[in-house]
Amino acid sequence: MRLLRWDRQRQAGRVRQQCTRPTDGIQPRDEIEGMLAVQMIAVHNAAMDAMGRAMITGQTFQGREANVNYATKMLRTFTTQTEALKRYRTGGQQKVTVEHVHVSEGAQAIVGAVSTGGRGYGEQRHE
What we know:
By secondary structure, the chain is mostly helical. It is built from three helices and no strands.
């Protein structure tokens, strides 16, 4: 009985290590990012496990195909999670950097935020 408890504790310690090392690399800033980081690690581990099973010598074609398909789904999920983490961190905002601007002779250029005084959506033009 004591041996089983010790083995379970040792196994739980290994699982904690497998989760905390990659989490350090992701560096979650709050609880939401922490939960997403743990999910990302679990999905990545599932994908790598499936790829490992696909490479087993003597694996049938159907077995190899099933494991590769599962790994592919997990890797797509991982990519989606990575994008979700990026969107969460940036607030979903995109930044556009203009590197080159050409202004022809006699033309005018404006540098800065521009807002037009145009009509709003659905407004009628009154003459």
